[in-house]
Amino acid sequence: MGAGGRMSVPPSQRKQESGSKKRVPISKPPFTLSEIKKAIPPHCFQRSLIRSFSYLVYDFILVSIFYYVATTYFHNLPQPLSFVAWPIYWTLQGSVLTGVWVIAHECGHHAFSDYQWIDDTVGLILHSSLLVPYFSWKYSHRRHHSNTGSLERDEVFVPKKRSSIRWWAKYLNNPPGRFVTVTIQLTLGWPLYLAFNVAGRPYEGLACHYNPYGPIYNDRERLQIYISDVGVLAVTYGLYRLVLAKGLAWVICVYGVPLLIVNAFLVMITYLQHTHPALPHYDSSEWDWLRGALATVDRDYGILNKVFHNITDTHVAHHLFSTMPHYHAMEATKAIKPILGEYYSFDGTPVYKAIFREAKECIYVEPDEGEQSSKGVFWFRNKI
């Protein structure tokens, strides 16, 4: 997740990696986490409050420019041009706000500064402004990092076993059905996850990110869940007052549609980081933290890698060292690739193709058949 230059990948290697479905090794890695860490320059683990704020200020400047142009000039445009101008604004503003979302995510990992109270204050303000319950997501996301790749304990995009897929899945296993599925996932997936834990870890009872007494959280965390709810409610009330002052259409155009784009990018990024035919999932008989953390994949979003502060193409390094600031992650990724070898996963397939490919090929998981197969290791399948 570094905001510096992109990692250089030779075209031949990029082409090979893009189309390759060679599975990630499932045997115990021939290296340890400490050996991976030693390969990374020590300065990569140093957090700079000034540098972290510089990225945030840069994003805010862009957000302000787009807002000013849209609210000052768009109403004077003739109608045909306004139909073009607003989608451009929505795309640009939604993309930059996704970068703001990523910085709030950094705060949740204590990667923004050396001061936890600063991280939590900045994260609460940023995430609340995007209608995200900061502490609620912070705790569930940390548990995702602690249990990545575990079928029993991972928190998000937990794949279903074949016996758990619903009866209607076979009717959606076609191009129109996949288009509908992906569309719903990108538009409603994030609010459904927050409110009902859709695609999350199975819990007894309703697992809701807004419920301080839900099964996701323990007693020590409940007060901060209330604070998260207050933050979201405060921004919601502010939007209500803005609707009264400016009108519903104005708020939807200026804020609502860019927020939908942020949510869509968030779901797509997370989905593609953890869903790939070459990635294994493990049950409790096989899972360990390091193999689970390595069961993620870096993707190439082109120029958006930089806009998203490289959360897209340095996700493997992020899962190994989540408190590392995003602006060092590119250098860290380059340093660890020789150590990881075949355990490092990169897919350069254009994401607009990849999301439909994974929706087609990654419907459920099951172990390989045969005496030599490991029954605790599950792979994606698509035959229903």
Would you give an account of this structure?
The chain has one domain. The chain is 56% helix and 4% strand. The protein is built from 15 helices and five strands. The protein has helices at 11-19, 33-38, 49-73, 79-108, 116-129, 134-146, 169-172, 175-196, 222-246, 248-274, 289-294, 304-307, 315-320, 329-340, 351-361, and strands spanning 281-282, 298-299, 346-347, 364-366, 377-381. The strands form two sheets. The chain has a three-stranded antiparallel β-sheet with strand order 1-5-4, with no helix packed on it. The longest helix has 30 residues, at 79-108. The two termini are 37 Å apart. Mean pLDDT is 93; it is low at 1-20.
Topology of this protein?
Layout: H1 11-19, H2 33-38, H3 49-73, H4 79-108, H5 116-129, H6 134-146, H7 169-172, H8 175-196, H9 222-246, H10 248-274, E1 281-282, H11 289-294, E2 298-299, H12 304-307, H13 315-320, H14 329-340, E3 346-347, H15 351-361, E4 364-366, E5 377-381
Parallel strand pairs: 2-3
Antiparallel strand pairs: 1-5, 4-5
Helix pairs in contact: 3-4, 4-5, 4-10, 5-9, 8-10, 8-15, 9-10
Protein name: Fatty acid desaturase domain-containing protein
Subcellular location: Membrane
Domain Fatty acid desaturase: 86-344
Please report the distance between the alpha carbons of the first and last residues.
37 Å
Helix tally equals 15
What's the story with the biggest beta sheet?
3 strands, antiparallel
Shape: globular
User: How many beta-strand runs?
Assistant: 5
Mean of all residue-level pLDDT scores = 93
The quaternary state of the protein chains shown equals single chain
Look at the helices and sheets and give the structural class.
mainly alpha
Rg (CA only): 21 Å
How much helix, percentage-wise, in residues? 55-70%
Strand content: under 5%
| Low-pLDDT ranges | 1-20
Number of domains: 1
Strand arrangement within the widest β-sheet reads 1-5-4
SSE order, one letter for each helix or strand: HHHHHHHHHHEHEHHHEHEE
